[in-house]
Amino acid sequence: MFEILKMRFEKNFVRMDQLRQYVLLGKITAEQFETITQISY
Predict the structure, then answer these.
(1) What is the arithmetic mean of pLDDT over 31-36?
(2) How far apart are CA 16 and CA 33, in angstroms?
(3) Integer CA distances (angstroms), 18 to 5, 9, 10, 12, in order
(4) pTM for the model
(5) What pLDDT sits at residue 23?
(6) Count of domains observed in the chain
(7) How much is the pLDDT for 14?
């Protein structure tokens, strides 16, 4: 799931607020969120 979301975020198919929801749902970790966005969770 991490690789898919990373690619989609880079192509602007997924917004940052949507990535936060994936963290809350347990699909990615907070560390993965930070890797994708370069912003602290």
Answers:
(1) 97
(2) 9
(3) 10, 10, 13, 11
(4) 0.88
(5) 98
(6) 1
(7) 97
- Structural domain including 11 reads 2-37
Give which of 12, 24, 2, 1 is closest to 36, Cα–Cα.
2
Q: Which residues of 17-37 are buried (b: 16+ CB within 10 A; e: fewer)?
A: eebeebbeeeebeeebbeebe
Q: Tokens representing 22? A: 């994936």
- Sequence letter at residue 36: I
Residue with tokens 């929801």: 21
Assigned token pair, 3: 């690789």
Task: Read off the pLDDT band of 12 (50, 70, 90).
Answer: very high
